[in-house]
Structure formats: structure tokens, C-alpha cells
Write a structure and sequence with these properties.
Layout: E1 5-8, H1 15-25, E2 30-35, H2 44-53, E3 58-61, E4 76-81, H3 84-95, H4 105-112, H5 114-117, H6 120-125, E5 149-153, H7 157-170, H8 194-203, H9 205-225, H10 230-243, E6 258-260
Parallel strand pairs: 1-3, 1-4, 2-3, 2-6, 4-5
Helix pairs in contact: 7-9
Length: about 260
């Protein structure tokens, strides 16, 4: 069965909230697939046998590459982009207490994981090229504007989910993208050290440019599908209604994810 939507779950990009909504809409029909090796990318051909056997409507993955239009796995490939420095700060807050980073700290994290520290979104969302590890950095390979790709922003989460609703509705899919609150945001906050900010801005220049392009693309699509803003306003009313009685997180525990080997 061919899924209706594939969610490319960027680390610390509100992906848990998207996963929650997918499971609420399609209980037991969301395939969550990862690789057992950390940061090993998953290609279209790697996942094809799973899709042939699975009765899933949606797929979510941190590691699945975005395919070209001709190789798409679903009518809609969806992902959220976040302010690069805010994402980095959130990522470090999440992993900073892990034993592997206690000696090197934030500097060690930034140097050891180039794809996390430098243009993460461009690397995650680019159609695979020749890079052996699948984390190449080529802004031209991000298929923003392709018919099968919808990119939104964490900072405009409600509008992003509304646009996903509209894309799926145009395909005949019944989908409610409203959500009471963001999930897995964690307590407290962390600010990147000021002495690192300028260098990280330069290292993430392509991601900042992509963020601006996604925002402009969202504005254009909203003007086309909801010119008077009434649809987005109604979506926000549904979100407010859900906030009165929010659900617990509906995503699968990692022990229940599907893992690839090799």
C-alpha cells in the first residue's frame, strides 16, 4: 500500500508533534522507521520492501532521504525547518547530558557532528547526491517547490499543519492537523555562548537562506489556498479547542519502531 504522506523528522524540529497528529489521525497505520546505526541515512530502495508489506497511511523517519519527484514514496513528503541556531541550542539541551559528550561538551558536539552543526536542514532535505554518508550540503538539491514536497516552519507550526491539511484534502485524504500543544519541548532553555554565535551563523548560512525561502513559499501557498485567511483561522480555533482537553503523546515508544540493519 502506498502511503499518503511521508514525514521527514528533523531532530528538534517539532517532529514529535507531527508524529502525534499522524497517530491520532491514523492509529496503528503509521510506520516509524529508523536505522540501528546512528545517523545512517535510509534511501528509497532501503524502505521499499517495508512499504510493500505494510498497511500504512503515513511514514515518519529521522533518517529517510527526500527523493526526487520520480522516486517519491507518497504524494506528499513533509518536513519542518527551524531557525538554525535555535535548533542547535535545543539539540544540545537534549543531548548534552549524555555521557559521550561530558568531556568535550558543546564544542566537542559541534566538531564531531558536522551535519548537526552546519546546515543541518539542507543536508537532511537535499535529494541524495554522491556523498557517501548521505549528509551532503548542496542547497540546490533541496526540492522546495516540487509538487511532492511541502516544507513548513517550526515557528509557523499552525500554518504549516494547516497547509498539510489542505495538501492532503486535495488528494481526498481526511486529515485533521490541529494540535493542542507542542510535544517534547523539554524544560528550561539554553542559549548558545555568544562567542560561538557569529561562527555558527556563517556555518549555517545555507540553512538561514532556506528558512527564508520556506517562509516565502508558505506565504505564496497560503495566499493561493486561503486568500481570506478564514481556513487558517478555523484551524486555530480547532487547536484552541483541543487545548482545553489535550491528549497524551500518541507516538510509538522507540522500542516499537522499525529498524533497518546493515
Amino acid at each position: 500500500m502506498r502511503p499518503l504522506v511521508v514525514h521527514h523528522h528533523g531532530f528538534k524540529c517539532a517532529g514529535s508533534s507531527v508524529v502525534h497528529v499522524l497517530h491520532r489521525n491514523w492509529p496503528e497505520r503509521v510506520l516509524h522507521v529508523e536505522h540501528r546505526l546512528p545517523d545512517r541515512r535510509i534511501g528509497v530502495m532501503d524502505i521499499a520492501p517495508l512499504l510493500a508489506a505494510a498497511e500504512c497511511v503515513a511514514v515518519t523517519s529521522h533518517l529517510l532521504t527526500v527523493p526526487a519527484q520520480a522516486d517519491r514514496l507518497a504524494p506528499v513528503h513533509f518536513a519542518l525547518v527551524r531557525d538554525p541556531l535555535q535548533r542547535l541550542a535545543s539539540a544540545w539541551r537534549f543531548v548534552g547530558q549524555q555521557e559521550r559528550w561530558r568531556d568535550g561538551g558543546l564544542h566537542g558536539f559541534l566538531e564531531a557532528l558536522e551535519h548537526q552543526a552546519s546546515n543541518f536542514h539542507v543536508r537532511l532535505l537535499g535529494v541524495p547526491g554522491d556523498a557517501a554518508d548521505g549528509w551532503h550540503c548542496d542547497p540546490a538539491r533541496v526540492p522546495l517547490g516540487e509538487p511532492h514536497v511541502l516544507l513548513g516552519l517550526v515557528e509557523r507550526f499552525d500554518a504549516s499543519m494547516f497547509l498539510l491539511e489542505r495538501r492532503l484534502a486535495a488528494l481526498g485524504g481526511a486529515f485533521d492537523g490541529s494540535v493542542a500543544r507542542r510535544h517534547n519541548v523539554g524544560p528550561g532553555s539554553f542559549e548558545l555562548p555568544p562567542e560561538l554565535v557569529e561562527g555558527l551563523r556563517e556555518r549555517n548560512r545555507a540553512d538561514f537562506e532556506l528558512h527564508a525561502r520556506v517562509s516565502a513559499a508558505m506565504d505564496a501557498e497560503l495566499a493561493r489556498v486561503d486568500p481570506d485567511g478564514s481556513g487558517l483561522a478555523e484551524h486555530r480555533r480547532r487547536c484552541a479547542e483541543r487545548a482545553r482537553s489535550p491528549n497524551p503523546f500518541l507516538g510509538l515508544d522507540p522500542a516499537r519502531w522499525t529498524y533497518l540493519d546493515g
